[in-house]
Amino acid sequence: MKLLSIETATNLCAAAVIDESAILSERSLSTPQIHSEKLVPIIDECLREANCDLSDLDGIAVSIGPGSFTGLRIGLSVAKGLSFASGKPLVAVSTLKAFAYEFYRKRKTGNAESILSLIDARRDEVYAALYDISAGGLSEVIPPAAFSLNRIFELSSTGRTVLVTGDGTEKFKKYIEKVESKDASAYIIPSPGSSGASAVGVALLGIEKLKRREYEKIDLLEPLYVKEFYTIVQQPKVQS
């Protein structure tokens, strides 16, 4: 079973092609606001390196969010277009679970009992989800949602050791450094640059959904935004 995956939920613009036994190709760029320009060329490079085209795939997996509103729209639009053009099924993978899964599959969880996945949602908020670790995999404890830093600290401080991952890690680290609570010491903060974001993580979770035939309806699938989009309108200066 062969699958193309797409990850655009954060600054990472990435794609990968895997089959059930190996990573055939992987390409990524970590630069803001390049997804619309670079995603399709990255996909083309991945398919060439894997020596296949769309007709050779069994499906397409896309990181569905939460995350960057623009990045999610671009990734899903491309995934839908490829799925429609090729007739291959499309599966959607939780971005936060894919972050956690990268640490789980690489056995980088240490003595952690849970993984807290975070994406910076600006201001004092993060998109977050909590997963317990077991021999059988990851089980969702807190589903993806937007939380204040204080609230997700309260919810995830359960007395268990928690590994923190995702591009909201540094923001959460600065928060717990100021918290006067013994629970703050229960969090494991990986070294900078270990966010867990990866098209391979999306692909490995996606191929399991393909096996279970958990296909999405292309015309109904929307990004998992979690919260409403809003902008700050700059008011014109009034000259006195």
Write a compact overview of the structure shown.
The protein is an alpha/beta fold and 240 residues long. Helix content is 30%, strand content 27%. Helix 1 crosses helix 2 and helix 3 (95-105) packs across helix 6 (199-211).
Care to describe what's here?
- The chain is α/β, with parallel strands linked by helices and 240 residues long.
- Helices cover 30% and strands 27% of the residues.
- The strands form two sheets. Strands 3-2-1-4-5 form a five-stranded mixed beta sheet, with helices on both faces. A five-stranded mixed beta sheet has the order 8-7-6-9-10.
- Helix 1 crosses helix 2 and helix 3 crosses helix 6.
- The relative contact order is 0.19.
- The model has no long low-confidence stretch (mean pLDDT 92).
The main sheet orders its strands as 3-2-1-4-5
Instruction: Give the structural class.
Output: alpha/beta
Query: What is the overall shape?
Result: globular
The fraction of residues in strands falls at 25-35%
The N- and C-terminal alpha carbons lie at a distance of: 69 Å
Rg over CA atoms, rounded to whole Å, is 19 Å
Oligomeric state, counting identical vs distinct chains = single chain
Low-confidence stretches: none
Helix content: 25-40%
Largest β sheet strand count, sense and barrel closure:
5 strands, mixed
Number of DSSP-assigned strands: 10
The secondary-structure element order is EEEHEHEHEEEHEHEH
Number of helical segments with 4 or more residues: 6
Mean pLDDT, rounded to whole units?
92
List keywords for this structure.
6 helices; alpha/beta; 5-stranded mixed sheet; 240 residues; 10 strands
